[in-house]
Design a protein that fits this description.
The structure holds two protein chains of two kinds. By secondary structure, chain A is mainly alpha-helical. Chain A has ten helices and no strands. Chain A starts with about 25 loop residues before the first helix and ends in a 5-residue tail after the last helix. The mean pLDDT of chain A is about 90. Chain B is globular. Chain B has a six-stranded mixed β-sheet, with helices on both faces. A three-stranded antiparallel β-sheet of chain B has the order 2-1-4, with helices on one face. The model of chain B has no long low-confidence stretch (mean pLDDT about 90). In chain B, helix 2 runs parallel beside helix 4 and helix 6 packs antiparallel against helix 7. Chain B is about 35% helix and about 25% strand. Chain B is of the alpha/beta class. Chain B has seven helices and nine strands. The chains are: A mainly alpha, B alpha/beta. At the A-B interface, helix 7 and helix 8 of A face strand 5 of B.
Amino acid sequence: MAEGGSSSGRNPVPFRGGGFSPKPIRFLGFIVFALLLIFVEIGARQGWISNLTLPRPSDVLKTFGALWDSGVLFQHLFPSLTRFAVGSALGVSLGILVGIMIGLFSIARAGLVPLLAALFPIPKIALLPLFVIWFGIDEGSKYALIALGTFTPTVVATYGAVDNVDRTLIRMGQSFGLSWQSIVRKIVLPGALPGILSGLRISLAIAIILLVAAEMLGAEFGVGAYILEAGSLYDLERLFTGVALLSILGVLVSWIIGRAEKALLSWRV
Amino acid sequence: MDLQLHNICHSYGETEVLRAVSLTIPSGEIVCIVGPSGCGKSTLLRLIGGLEQPNSGLVEQIGTPPENSLNPLTFVFQDFALLPWRSVSGNISLVLEDHGLNAAERSRIVDGVLGRTSLSDFSNALPKQLSGGMKQRVAIARALAVNPAVMLMDEPLSALDSQTRDLLMEDLVELWQRQPFTAVYVTHNLQEAVRLGNRVVVLSRRPGQIREIVTIETPLSERGQWSADLEAKQKHLWALMRDEAQAADMELVHG
């Protein structure tokens, strides 16, 4: 207070605390999304957003409806979902396995961490031609690409999570004479689960990106192929329908992981 | 089963932590180890329990542990070391699961120790729902479940507030009176040492050496009322520790 020198003044102590604790606000994310769509819709209808710049959201919705009705949607969606599921299941399960080995064994750590550092920054899509030669132009190369793309981030997240397991809990297990397998299964793995799940968020988002990239480079059916075809015809409605499908897939995956975290990690403070 | 320490020396790299510690822990007694911070009390306990190996010297078990003891040397940790994803009863059954007991035997033991520590109503609670004092009660119940020959208690009450500490100390005294157990009890709190110890081992500052072993004759049951004798013991212990603590406090910490 500038006039704080006066001895007679009584002032309430100003509040300086609070903040820095994000709270969930329901529906706000949805409202932002809806407002943005409404804005584009109005712009496109009134002409200050040209049809070449952005399609009308309502048209995209119509295209989506037509796609659904004709069954073409599923023709593209099923192969994509299969590739996503198979590829990421392979990559994630191998990644968790290798990550745990690195977390537990010095030999695995010393031998594999530099290799991972070399693998991680490679844009996996650059290796697609190689995978086509190794695994064939069909599904094999796509599975391999997605698997490799999810493998590296999963390994890094997993061994970080294993490293972060409270050592006093492990000492406790040893002090009670628990077997090595028991310590790994009952202390290390549950302790690493939060880190593994948050790593999964990143891995699966990468899997979606690679899925589309792989399908763009060589697939008859799939969301990526659909987007590529629409893009080369400058059919913006169909392009955005495909993009929206990917967004929905991303939101869905993130939601499922969120549910899994709620169910499996309810013990967290 | 008694424990005997022969000439234990230990260092971490350049830092010598313990020097020539020899000590006997007779069955049925609570031996308290006190000393200034950083004097190697906890290290000594981990050496006794086999969680670390001394550079030289030997820890010996004399006699065999009781037939039904699943884990003869059992720790109680300062920070409780409960698995946050397991309930109270799950945390206790964890330490029984590797011993080939069937589910019925396990739950009988768990119920037994929960009863002994008055925790029966909390068997399904998760650690995050419990106060610090309750968590340590669970850890004590877990230690009792394996029927230890010697309990190794590493500042078990130091993470608790003073009221809770007093309550838990009474609980420990009661447990001991009902069924005397052998314990090595590391603490920096002289009041705890005088309340619980049959003998109090005073360690010097680093490198930890035994300065004196003070025997307290007053039976545990009679220590509830603070007597002149106990007061004198505590004063004596404080006199022993005071200079060491002061010197230890002034020392620079070496990486």
